[in-house]
Amino acid sequence: MKLHWQILLAIIFAIGIGLLLNEQAVFFGIAVKGIFEFIGTLFLNALKMIIVPLIVSSIICGVSNLGGGDSIGRLGGKTIGFYMLSSLLAILVGLMFVNFLEPGIIDGKPARDHLNLSSSEAISSQLEQIGSHDGNDLTDIFLRMIPPNIVKAAAEGQMLGLICFCLIFGFFMRQLQPKLKDTLVNFWQAVFETMMSVTMFIMKFAPLGVFGLVAKTVIETSQELKAFIEFMELLAVFGVTVFLALAFHTFVTLAIALKAIARVSPLKHYKAMASAMLTAFSTASSSGTLPVTMKCVEENAGVSNRISSFVLPLGATINMDGTALYECVAAMFIAQAYGLELSFVTQFTIVLIALLTSIGVAGIPAASLVAIAIILTAIGLPVEAIGLLMITDRILDMLRTAVNVFSDSCCAVIIAKTEGENQVLSEY
After folding, report:
1. Do the beta carbons of residue 334 and residue 255 sit within 8 Å?
2. pLDDT tens digits, residue range 118-129?
3. 8-state DSSP, 249
4. Domains within the chain, CATH numbers bracketed
5. Is the pTM value of this prediction over 0.85?
6. How far apart are CA 158 and CA 164, in angstroms?
7. Residue 385: which residues within 8 A CB-CB, separation 6 or more?
8. What is the tens place of the pLDDT at every residue in 93-139?
9. How far apart are CA 194 and CA 57, in angstroms?
10. Mean pLDDT across the chain, nearest whole number?
11. CA 381 to chain centre
12. Which of 54-68, 101-115, 400-414 has the highest mean pLDDT?
């Protein structure tokens, strides 16, 4: 059975068992809720364990694969420029929708109690401290981008500085003599491939982890029917918020980019990329969809292999519009639910980290959970809150992956047009 069906069944079973049991239920003298919590925590710990090596190897490999030469340099500049711009626009779209719809707020109050989120004194004081930040703390954000000790930054989870270091390292690694460069490239590629294998191994246990996290949450929130209904309504509002933001970015933001920059019909491009987007939706893997994406871009959209073979693999590594948007909305949703004062500094931090972490997110199902953990840690919220997102994560993962792939294809078309390939989408 495919992983997404396993996760779906795990969620259904977890909801059913959570509704049948209560917090006093025991199994051989052990609290059932404690068993579920142990399983879920074990899965979360495994995800957190791979954060540093996965992000480091992914970013360094992505930057180092840009190649050399004037032509590649020009293509690389255009490609990265578009990817950074489209990801930033996606995040801002998500920020706009989550601020307007406020899925983490109920009747003007944080939904913390309705979602049974921890409200310990330690977290409360941490939220007060974060909420008291002023504009001067903007300088701290940029200071954290250049950590004095990169090893310490990695150990303490200061991912902003680690990501910036990886971008710089990958860039200058490309400038080395071929012999030295090849050694480093092979090394980091091997690390990346290894971490991808480890990630896929951990994701095999995702159904168990999801079952534990969801069952624990349902047990804690379903004791009163009203509370459980409010819990599901909140998640529904969150899912609708993400869906509307993704739709807006796909059918408005990227459509305007295609029309204004490439001077092509967005409708033609939607039609040309239909099979790739459906494949991305069903697999929830932009890397796995890459062969189909290249086929659609070359055969249907008319982009040359010279452009597609460079732009699309790079996009599958560093361009994650849908993921970046989702990370922003998810972090804001949890922050709203906890009652965090969402000042400009806090929102700017979320936008910046979502933009940078989207570069390092692997093109595999549920990889964005790792990036969301980074954002939550950066703004001082407990990683355990990710458990809330598990119920809706699969369907939203499928949607945002389709957006990721479509954004890659838009970049290929736009770059091809700016390189003088006038045959693009001319006959489709």
Report:
1. no
2. 554 444 444 444
3. I
4. 3-418 (1.10.3860)
5. no
6. 11
7. 117, 334, 337, 338, 376
8. 999 999 998 888 887 787 777 666 655 444 444 444 444 444 444 46
9. 10
10. 77
11. 17
12. 400-414
Token pair 């020009």 in the structure block, residue: 74
CA atoms of 294 and 61, how far apart (whole Å) = 20
Residue 283 — left, alpha, or beta (φ > 0 → left; ψ -120 to 50 → alpha)? alpha
Work out the end-to-end distance of the chain between its first and last CA atoms, rounded to an integer number of angstroms: 37
Q: How far is CA 75 from CA 18, 65, 154, 305, in A?
A: 53, 12, 32, 13
Query: How far is Cα 26 from Cα 36, in angstroms, rounded to an integer?
Result: 11
Give the chain's count of helices (H) and strands (E).
20, 4
Produce one character per residue of 56-73: b if its CB has 16 or more CB atoms within 10 Å, e if not. bbbbbbbbbbbeeeeeee
Rounded Cα gap, residues 175 and 67, in angstroms: 10
Task: Render pLDDT for 167-183 as a digit per residue (tens, 0 to 9).
Answer: 788 878 888 888 898 89
Say which range, 25-29, 43-47, 234-238, 243-247, has the weakest mean pLDDT: 25-29
How far apart CA 80 and CA 255 sit, in angstroms, is 19
CA-to-CA distance for 246 and 137, rounded, in angstroms?
31
DSSP state of 68: -
60 and 188 in contact (C-beta within 8 Å)?
yes
Q: How confident is the model at residue 4 (pLDDT cuts 50, 70, 90)?
A: low
